[in-house]
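Re: that backbone. Tokens:
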């Protein structure tokens, strides 16, 4: 089996550390379990927009982590997309192929709604998960019947594996939590404070504090 290098969250050290203090609210663009973006509102600083970020490992093996971006970066990417794809999208529409209309791209980004930050004091952990790929015929009946949910577990016969930073878990001093993580579908984010949903989404993950994530060695399973 080939183990690819770990895939980390696209964010500066400064931005990641800023999540440990100074947050005053958050907003979700899209549905809670199918969000395309999560706004992290910071006191006296510009907001950060968390989005899903795809990484190609090898042919037919793609993993998804997070990216923390300034809204201006997303607007710039949308503008570049408009310019680059206008002629192509017009031709595809003319032959009857349905594609994303240019007007669907935001001219101005804003969350659907904003909420007060749910914690007075909190800690932030990065959730690591080991993704893998395997031909379906190589997966044993035992794995389907009783998959190994331990952190880092992969089925025997896997071709490739990759350690991926899949989400952020915020935990208040009273034990309540907020999860911002890659969802079940590509490019969807899961945003939830529901304990059962968080438990289900974090099975098989390894939680590492932000400072350890930034300065310590990558986990080894």
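Recovered sequence:
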């Amino acid at each position: 089996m080939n183990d690819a290098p770990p895939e980390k969250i696209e964010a500066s050290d400064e931005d990641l550390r800023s999540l440990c203090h100074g947050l005053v609210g958050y907003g979700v663009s899209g549905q809670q379990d199918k969000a395309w973006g999560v706004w992290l509102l910071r006191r006296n600083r510009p907001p950060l927009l968390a989005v899903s970020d795809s990484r190609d490992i090898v042919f037919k093996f793609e993993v998804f982590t997070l990216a923390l971006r300034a809204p201006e970066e997303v607007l710039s990417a949308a503008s570049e997309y408009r310019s680059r794809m206008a002629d192509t999208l017009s031709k595809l529409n003319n032959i009857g192929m349905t594609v994303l209309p240019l007007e669907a791209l935001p001219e101005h980004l804003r969350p659907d709604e904003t909420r007060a930050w749910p914690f007075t004091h909190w800690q932030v952990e990065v959730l690591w998960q080991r993704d893998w790929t395997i031909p379906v015929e190589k997966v044993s009946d035992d794995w389907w019947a009783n998959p190994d949910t331990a952190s880092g577990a992969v089925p025997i016969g896997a071709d490739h594996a990759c350690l991926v930073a899949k989400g952020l878990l915020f935990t208040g001093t009273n034990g309540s939590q907020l999860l911002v993580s890659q969802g079940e579908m590509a490019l969807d984010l899961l945003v939830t404070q529901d304990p059962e949903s968080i438990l289900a989404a974090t099975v098989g993950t390894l939680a590492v504090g932000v400072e350890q994530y930034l300065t310590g060695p990558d986990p080894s399973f």
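Residues 100-105 have pLDDT under 50 and may be disordered. The first strand starts at residue 2 and ends at 7.
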